[in-house]
Amino acid sequence: MKMQNFQILRLILLLNIPQCWSIFTTTVGDTCTADWQYRGSLGEDKWSTFCPQCKANMQSPIYIKVSSLLYAPNLDLLSMENYDSMRDIQVTNIGRSVMLDLRSAGEYWLSRGNLPGKYLADQMHFHWGSDSSRGSDHRVDGRQFPLEMHIVYDLMDQVKDREMIAAVSVLFEVSSEDNADLQPLIQALSLIKTQGQKTTLPYFMLSKFLPRNLKRFYRYYGSLTTPPCLETVVWTVFKETVKVSERQLSVFRSLTYRDNESGQNRQLANNFRKIQSLNGRIVYSTEDRSGVTAGAFAAIGLTVVILVIGLGAFFAFAWPKYKAKKMRAEDKQPIVETSIQ
Ligand SMILES: [Zn+2]
Question: How far is the CA of 202 from the centre of ligand 1 (A)?
């Protein structure tokens, strides 16, 4: 099943058909053809009935528990190319999310960061809640965020089943003021409130949607968070969040989707999946558990080395001189005898 999916996906890539991932369509895999939704008779609890991969043991999203992270000093810096370029980009209300077609806009590359090769961005989309207590797929130390952005990439320069897809996650936090960088997208969303509507977002710059600190992230192996739930995804979840205001979130929450069962338009929100079991998987971090970065760790190590050398020099040279001087001084002390009558 897994190899079959893999071959079909490679064929799709070779045919240069964008939007090949599950958030757009469920054509991948012969049993994942149902028109799934997050709730109802084809909701997430039923996904595995028509898509068995969704109950496999390396699923996403996960709960990231900071105290259980494994510090990975070999996680080097990510390379992200062309993210500062300005492009016109198509934004579509696809009913399960809003999707930005990165593949058609230009070439956004992701590499290094201990990834096995170069990945080309295919699309980005969002998950959000009906209120700010929920929304994100991933959770960190029990906290769910109001908005999460996913950039989905395809591995281009070699075939490696387990890491064929890379996904980058950006978590958003509520701020009292609008995030000006998001505003062009927010305005575009107000034009595509109904499922199937699309518009062009001019002067789009992908770097504006990323946190400033790209050096700190979590890394684990998992799956797509929607059918067909393929377990060929290497996840990078940035630690630093991006700001979004309640007013901007309210525009996400004003979007609608067409409900399969009733045929009615309903609010598009809470498009996140339940937390999946880790099943023994390790989540790696660019920082150790105490929050000490690799650079700080090296600085601490250097300080310890200098201290040890300093103490060694003291005991080798200064201490014998001090001891000899003290002994000479004691030799000159008069001997006083006392007696008790
Ligand atoms: Zn997603």
Answer: 23
Name the H helices within the chain.
2-14, 47-50, 102-105, 183-189, 246-253, 294-313, 319-331
Q: Ligand 1 mean position to 71 CA, how many Å?
A: 26
Give the CA count within 13 Å in the CB-facing half-sphere of 65. 7
The answer, as to whether pTM is greater than 0.70, is yes
Ligand 1: centre distance to CA 125 (Å) = 6
Let me know: does 42 contact 227? Beta carbons within 8 Å.
no
Q: End-to-end alpha-carbon separation of the chain, Å?
A: 104
Segment 36-92, tens digit of pLDDT: 999 888 899 999 999 999 999 999 999 999 999 999 998 989 999 999 999 999 999
Instruction: Please choose, from the candidates 77, 326, 90, the residue with its C-alpha nearest in 3D space to the C-alpha of residue 191.
Output: 90
Residue 72 near residue 285, CB atoms below 8 Å: yes
C-alpha span between 167 and 246 (Å, rounded): 26
Compute the distance from residue 152 Cα to the ligand 1 centre, in Å.
8
**Residue 217: Cβ within 10 Å count:** 22
Q: Can you give 250-280 as a three-state secondary structure string?
A: HHHHCCEEECCCCCCEEECCCCCCCCCCCCC
Neighbour count for residue 39 (Cβ, 10 Å): 14
For the record, the structure tokens of 191 come out as: 């034009």
